[in-house]
Amino acid sequence: MAGICTGKAPGESCDHSRECEVGNYCSTNKVCAAQVQTGEACPFETACPNTDTCNAHNICVKAFSVEEKGTCTVDNECKGGGCIPGDGDDGAGFCQNLESDFDHPYKCSKDDDCQTKIFNREPSGDLVVANGFCDCGGNANGDKYCKLFNGDYYGIKYYEMLRAWYNGQDILKCNSEKRRSTECRATY
């Protein structure tokens, strides 16, 4: 296609997945290889189809597909983008949409200032809060503000947009390493 870069073909040597043709990744053997299928083993996310993520058990699973309270091992499995570590030893967590305990924008001085509303930790049911991040607001005063949580209004809107991207066809046109980039989303 005119104006679109092509990468290295399967079997060619590589150091990074961004060097390989769309639909391929740079394997642990340092050669471009076809992405594995959903449900198959993955050493890292770029090995999975662009619509998937590599979970903590190194299996390709559909990205952003697990409902709230569903079992997860990484954030990208959850529809709302948040996997909270569980109480058990199996590495399983649960999907949770965390909501700020304040209105935005909210000035802060440390991460502890940026807490969620109380939520039930699965499977124990303990009531807990999570700390967020206090980041520089990029303003002349040097004020810091709490970052959004995935369950805040604009966090929800962001993950709705991201799910639409992952469920669409245009993501399949992107290099495996660029699947989440704003550059790729803007191109298509």
Q: What are the main properties of this structure?
A:
188 residues; alpha+beta; 3-stranded antiparallel β-sheet; 11% helix
Question: What this model shows, in words?
Answer:
This protein has 188 residues and is of the alpha+beta class. It has a domain at 99-150. 11% of the residues lie in helices and 18% in strands. It has helices at 153-167, 182-187; strands at 24-26, 32-34, 52-54, 60-62, 71-72, 83-85, 93-95, 107-108, 119-121, 126-128, 134-136, 144-146. A 3-stranded antiparallel beta sheet has the order 5-7-6, with no helix packed on it. The chain has a 3-stranded antiparallel beta sheet with strand order 8-12-11, with no helix packed on it. Strands 1-2 form a two-stranded antiparallel sheet. The longest helix is centred in the C-terminal third of the chain and has 15 residues, at 153-167. The protein is globular, with a radius of gyration of 19 Å.
